[in-house]
Amino acid sequence: MTNSESPVFHTPAEDPEMEKAAASARQTFRFFWREMSWERRRIVPGLELAAVKASFSDPPAIRAQNPDGLDVEHMWLMEVDFDGRQLQGSLINSPESLRSVKEGDRVAVAGKQICDWIYAIAGNVYGGFTVDLMRSRMGKGERRQHDQAWGFDFGEVGIVNLVPPEYIGEAPAKKKGLLSYFGGSKSAPQDYAAVAATEHPMSVNMRASLDRTLTEKPGFVHDTDDRGFSILHQLALAGSLDGVDVCLKHGADPKKPAQNGMTPLALAKSLGWQKVMARLQQAGG
Questions:
Q1: What is the distance between the alpha carbons of residues 282 and 152, in angstroms, rounded to a whole number?
Q2: Nearest to 263 by CA among 253, 252, 255
Q3: pLDDT of residue 171
Q4: What is the CB neighbour count within 10 angstroms for residue 62?
Q5: What is the pLDDT of residue 178?
Q6: What is the DSSP letter of 94?
């Protein structure tokens, strides 16, 4: 996705529907990050797109020099990383009037600045709450052009899925056919409660292999990356109950903080992974 494929849309400064869509994106961001976490462990990449939209404003001193500029601009970030406190990414849009950031900059944003997230697998889009709202305000022709510019299937207006349906035991999504143009049957909204209650399939499938690895290489459970994240830190932030459980059984320290000061429990709490939090608390984290 390039700047030309993610055009800037202008919405009123006070737009309750857009604010509600952005709030939904923040509330469900953990599912984006979970998918990103597992993508890093895949031998064959599965994501065709992964991006987060955030709000940006110039500092007061710069804003004073540009009184006619926009107060806030919403732009997309790719190559995203998240450490439980801040989200980092590369800006892929050119600001219309902001002067403190530019396309290509590596920027850090707080969670409250997140206003949307999106990822694509096998041509299908997940997330995109504000995108769905904007599509609902388009005519059919404009919507078709929008989707073609992105190059993905956004599905039906009004339905924002969080994960591929097979993750929660449902049949894979069907591609649009001729009947869709004649008002064919509509899809049902995804059950968000089922998504929250269901472990990521890679977490389940990795359990046995992780157990073998930590049995054969017991020191691995204590190794850390350049952020001071052990595998327990990583899996706690990714919401992997199976992974966290295996790490704890092999002696991972539930109280050890990463370089940013966050313990595994604090990382799980930052995204609201309730089952992981309970397991870490059980272990004394």
A1: 43
A2: 255
A3: 83
A4: 13
A5: 40
A6: -
Q: Phi, psi at residue 88, to the nearest 5°?
A: -115, 150
Q: What kind of architecture, by CATH, is found in domain 201-278? A: Alpha Horseshoe (1.25)
What pLDDT shows up at residue 272? 97
d(Cα 62, Cα 137) in Å, to the nearest integer? 34
Say whether pLDDT at 236 is over 50.
yes
Of the candidates 115, 138, 136, the residue with the CA atom closest to the CA atom of residue 127: 115
273: tokens are: 């992974």
Task: Give me the DSSP letters along 23-47.
Answer: HHHHHTHHHHHHHHHHHTT-SS---
Distance between CA atoms of residues 61 and 59, nearest Å:
6
pLDDT of 179 strictly over 50: no
| 193 half-sphere exposure, CB direction, 13 A CA radius | 0
Predicted confidence at residue 2, as pLDDT, reads 46
Among residues 168, 177, 149, 133, the alpha carbon closest in space to that of 31 is found at 168
For 201-226, what is the mean pLDDT?
A: 96
Cα dist. 272→28, 77, 82, 264 in Å?
Answer: 10, 23, 15, 12
- CATH 1.25.40.20 maps onto the chain at 201-278
Measured CA to CA, the distance from residue 225 to residue 227 in angstroms comes to: 5
Beta bridge partners of 89: 107
* Residue 243 parent element (H or E): helix 241-249
> If you average pLDDT over residues 237-256, what whole number do you get?
98
